[in-house]
Amino acid sequence: MKPVVTGFRRAYRGPMTLNDRSTALSLLETRRSGRPREMVEPGPDEIELERILTIAARTPDHGKLFPWRFVTIAKDQRPAFADLLKAALPESDPTANPAHVQKALDFAHQAPALVVLIAAPVADHKIPQWEQLLSVGAAGMNLLMAAHACGFVGSWITGWAAYSERVRSAFCGPGERIAGFMFLGSPGIELQERPRAPIAAVVRPWAPTSA
Hints:
Elements: E1 3-6, E2 9-12, H1 24-30, E3 39-40, H2 46-56, E4 68-73, H3 78-92, H4 98-108, E5 113-119, H5 129-149, E6 153-157, H6 160-163, H7 165-171, E7 177-187, H8 199-202
Antiparallel strand pairs: 1-2, 3-7, 4-5, 5-7, 6-7
Helix pairs in contact: 2-5, 3-4, 3-7
């Protein structure tokens, strides 16, 4: 259902069309991630993925440090990624059972495309690392928005694998860490909206205090 515009406010009549690409504002207002395990083909091809990553790199970056990287995992590399997760799981969870192992193997094969977002802050720089990490988050959000604008669905996942030293060392250099696994594809089932914070709960006017 298309939104009804009244001044600068936008109200929806009936079910919202998620990832509505009719206008830039519509996409921003209706963006919705998908579950990686429910993603199906088609995913972005090589040219589309390059476009998505090029857009992702157009992100606020104080100091022009580019404190983020993108590592793509090709389809024929998924078995090797699965082997990595299988080897790393007992180190992260010594109580892992066969069901946990299978879940890790499934994780490695989810969605048609997979990009690992790497936080690569520049150490000992005048730009605080906190600001550099904010830029990493902006790059991740840009990546999702670009994927959705191209007609795909995306999901930003962390989980235990993002914090495993064995997995980290397979993708990162010194001082770097995994910011997330970005799964991209097409929704295998209809997307459902999730609860959103009421604006009144997250926005407040500043109340200056007397000195």
